[in-house]
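User: quick one, fold this
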Amino acid sequence: MSQLQAIAISCERGGRPLFAPQSFTLSPGQAMQIEGGNGSGKTSLLRMVCGLAPTASGEVRWGGQAIAEVRHAFSLDLLYLGHSLGLKDELSAVENLRVASVLAGHPVGHEEALQALQAQGLGSRSHLPLRVLSQGQKRRASCARRLVALYQPPSSGFGWRCAALEAGRMNAFFALVARDLRLAFRRKAEVLSGVFFFVVVAALFPLAIGPEAATLRHIGPGVLWVGALLASMLTLPRLFENDWRDGSLEHLVLSPHPLGLLVLGKIVAHWLVSGLPLVALAPLLGLQFDLPSDALGMLALSLLLGTPVLSCIGAIGAALTLGVRGGGVLVALLVLPLFVPVLVFGAGAVEALNSGLGAQAHVSILLAMLLPTVFFSPWACSAALRIALE
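Assistant:
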């Protein structure tokens, strides 16, 4: 166990100091209680100690080193329970606890999670959706994290924990993808809204334009690509907002796993829900525009390469506008100009194929867009999310 030190840390809000510089030292086995009136800075002090908020002065140390220098070791030993529970109402208590344990670097099995919930008096309610539980029961489900954090296999030395952390990063990635997919399928209205919008746009244009086959073949790729672009934008404002509102985002930031990897997991889940169905439906909807079979294949390929770019760029916009009033409109203003090149080369690939010019150049450009956005967008989103939480 390491020693926690705060050295002359202070906090300012709007240029006004909330409290005088505070210093304290907590050795293993000690506890500290913070008291004060509303607005005195109790929560701000705790967030600074955890590393969620920067200090106006001073620093926090863990084991004699600044927490920024030992971020992984500090996060492994940290258990944070904030005002927001960081739990998902659509998941059961045991599902929430298992995902939280993986993200916290202490993965446990189903039986260990059940034992932790039974110790909190939730054994008979562990498999119920959290939304049917009372607020007190939800709080107890959140407190079960402390029992999970105490669970360690027998050979739990520091070297073993570092090795487990390295091995567990991909587990955390896949656990987050699986969690977001499970949430999406339990919120069917959110999943189907984008797909339904795409189908409606593709179905209405031929009715409005008329049955002229040449005209439909000419406008088909552009119409389908515009529909896919707008459909993918419908879910962008909710990409991080739900996690921000229920406190899950704080636990992602405090996780010992790289935040960029976790953000990439959320982007992948967003694309699987909002992008992949559009790729699958596009060839079928393209038949309404009398597109030949090779053009339908190119349409699916261009969407397969282009829609992940839309998700990556859109994620940056969603992170930058997180917590801002009217963020949905701001996301559109931010990302639409960046979506234009993807739209031009995605629709242009199908048009070039129909014209006999070949679509290799357009496909290469789409691939050239995809690779850097997949690499850089998680990093940019991570920086924006940290700023939003501060």
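User: anything notable?
Assistant: The longest helix spans residues 360-389.
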